[in-house]
Amino acid sequence: MILLQVVADTTSVEAVDESLSVLDLAVQGGFMMIPIAILSVVAVYLFFERLMIINKANVEPGPFMNRVKDHVLRGDINGAKVLCAQHDSPVGRMIQKGLSRIGSPLKNIEASIENVGKIEIFRLEKNLSALATIAGAAPMMGFLGTVIGMVEAFIAIAQEEGSVSPKLLSSGIYTAMITTVAGLVVGIIAYLAYNFLVTRVQKVIHKMEYTAIEFIDLLQEPQ
Minimal CA–CA distance to 142: which of 95, 99, 106, 178? Predict the structure, then answer.
């Protein structure tokens, strides 16, 4: 009979645990789950918004530069400018700025291309710092929620008369730990997303630098 009672108790506990969905756990996490959920939504939005912008900028400059070179060597600067205007990318805008400065000293052309490149890099890196902030802030909010939950649990224990129920103690602790888990999950995902986007931006910057050097070399070729 004792063995059957233990089995029945175990079965009932498993049934209760299985009935707890992710939403139920989130609700039991308390009010600190709200800012963590908001941060998760913002992180997802920033990731996909930046990913689309970076992918649009991450075009292979080789074919484009070959066509620009053909125009420049033929002396068709206006045709090269039109080609750059049609090439909606950081590389296209940099080369277009350089073409508009043809006739100026080479240092001035390099400086104008570099200034446009800085602006384009700023546009690519926009909101990446916010994603990095979420990666650090979400776990901290989770820890704060856990501390608040533990304080509430111990207050409830202190208000109990007589012996403290193990159920009360365990439920208060696991409820408090939910925010830590949620904060860490959001923080880890945001951190991975941030590093992925930074790597993609670096690839675009490398292509921009290579193209700028190639364009300056083109201007120094004998006409």
Answer: 178
Task: State the CB neighbour count (10 A cutoff) for residue 194.
Answer: 23
Residues in CB range of 194: below 8 A, 6 or more apart: 128, 131, 132, 135
Amino acid letter for position 102 = I
| Spatial CA neighbour of 36 closest among 176, 134, 150 | 134
Length of the chain: 223
- Which two tokens mark 51? 């990913």
* Strand, coil or helix: 102: strand
DSSP-assigned letters across all residues of 23-59: HHHHHHT-TTHHHHHHHHHHHHHHHHHHHHHHHHH--
pTM of the model: 0.78
For 135-169, the pLDDT digits (tens) are: 999 999 988 888 887 777 777 777 766 666 666 66
Cα 155 to Cα 141, 164, 169, distances in angstroms: 21, 12, 11
Q: Read off the amino acid at residue 212.
A: A
Mean residue pLDDT of the chain comes to 81
The token pair at 91 is 């590389």
Look up tokens 């007589």; give the residue: 162
> Domains of the chain: which residue ranges?
26-55+127-206, 58-125+211-219
64 token code pair: 């484009």
Please identify which residue in the block is written with the tokens 């710092």: 129
Of 67, 204, 41, 221, the closest CA to residue 123 belongs to 204
Written as one string, the DSSP assignment of 191-206 is HHHHHHHHHHHHHHHH
